[in-house]
Each structure stands twice: as C-alpha cells, then as structure tokens.
Amino acid sequence: NAGVTQTPKFQVLKTGQSMTLQCAQDMNHEYMSWYRQDPGMGLRLIHYSVGAGITDQGEVPNGYNVSRSTTEDFPLRLLSAAPSQTSVYFCASSASGLAGADTGELFFGEGSRLTVL
Amino acid sequence: GDSVTQMEGPVTLSEEAFLTINCTYTATGYPSLFWYVQYPGEGLQLLLKATKADDKGSNKGFEATYRKETTSFHLEKGSVQVSDSAVYFCALSAPWEDSNYQLIWGAGTKLIIKP
What pLDDT, on the 0 to 100 scale, is given for residue A104? Predict the structure, then answer.
C-alpha cells in the first residue's frame, strides 16, 4: 500500500523559477491538503481540497496554486519561486475532514525539501 | 487564535530513561488533541489522540492525558528505546471554514535516544 506519495523529495530552484510538487494518494480519500514546515514553527496549511474539482485557500496560500482534477492527485504549483518559499512541504490526505475528524488521522507523504536560491 | 506550544529540542536521553515532552495549548471551545511522530525519512503519522478532558491516549508505550485545567497534553513514556528517536508534534483540531476543522501544530520536538 503506497499511501501518500510525494515527488520530488529534494529540489533546488532559482528565484523566479516555477515548479510543481506532486502528490498522489491511493486510499480514495476525499480530503487532501498541503502544509509547509519551517524551523521553529508548526506545520501551516497552504491549500486544501474537499474533493475532486474543489480547492480552497489555507493559512498561507500566497505564491502557490493547486488543482484537483482527480481524487488521487493534488499537485502544488509554485508560480515564481522566492527565497521565502524555502521550506519542507508535506501533502496529507484524510477520509474525514482536514483534521481527520472522525478518526483523528491524517496520512502524510514523506515531505519535499525545497530550497530557493 | 488557537495555538500549540511545545518544548524546544533536541531532547537527548539514554536508552531506558523516562521521557516527558511538554505540550500546552490555547483554544476556544474544546478541541481534540493529538500527538504525531515523524521517524527519519518518513512522513508524519498519528501516535495517539484524546478527544475530551481527562481522556488518556496511548500507543506504543506512549501516553498523554488531556488536562483541561492546565491546558496541557504532555507526552510520556516510561522507558525509551533507540527506535523512539524521531520528531514529535503536538496538535489540536480547531474550527475552520465551512464547518471544517483543521489541525493547529506545535513546532515539533526532536528526540534523540543514545544507546
């Protein structure tokens, strides 16, 4: 069972470049979300989706785009990378809400470490 | 707004030592509380949870009790092993838009267990 798969695991970009972080889950979860993790801070919600075709902004959405054309995939696009976007990015999925309200369980990918020079 | 505060790490212990990782929170209402763990090279995974005051969550020898009077959810283990070396995150569920809930996260505490 693959669970949540994120690619790439590591990426270095130059300021102004664009890229897409891929996220796929094979658990048929309706809820998917992207977080960023910065030193000394907790995970912060970037964007989320409650089902195919439905996306919305989280706490820190600026500079990022998402789409959800299928239940399985939820890519995160950086439109014009900035050094402030240097971070570790996590994709998560849940069968019941952003917080996995019924079970309390979010399923996470291994993370993507992005450095913007 | 709602927030979670964890003790800063890294926390370094010897094998078989007693572990406490402190977590306190501020929240309106009565959130559910969670501990997640991230082992090296892996994604975060749920370790334990508690949904109401005085509940005790437990898993893999770890325990945490939801203390409403002290707004705390400290993680404890009686005898740690090298395999417990990981980063531990405390989190609470908070209302979000459209009747959703999202998780508010602590900064994480890195635990290093030496043989």
Answer: 63
B51 part of contact set with chain A, CB < 8 Å: yes
Report the chain A residue with the minimal C-alpha distance to residue B4: A42
- Closest to A75 (Cα-Cα) out of A47, A50, A51, A94: A47
Closest by Cα among A38, A40, A36 to A61: A36
Residue type, B66: Y
Q: Parallel, antiparallel, or unpaired: how do β-strands B45-50 and A112-116 relate?
A: unpaired
How far from B112 is each of A99, B23, B85, CA to CA, in Å?
Answer: 28, 18, 5
CA B86/CA B113 separation, integer angstroms: 9
Cα distance between residue B105 and residue A33, in whole Å: 14
pLDDT surpassing 60 at residue A101? no
The runs of H, that is alpha helices, within chain A are none
CA distances from A101 to A13, B8, B61, B72 (A): 36, 28, 24, 20
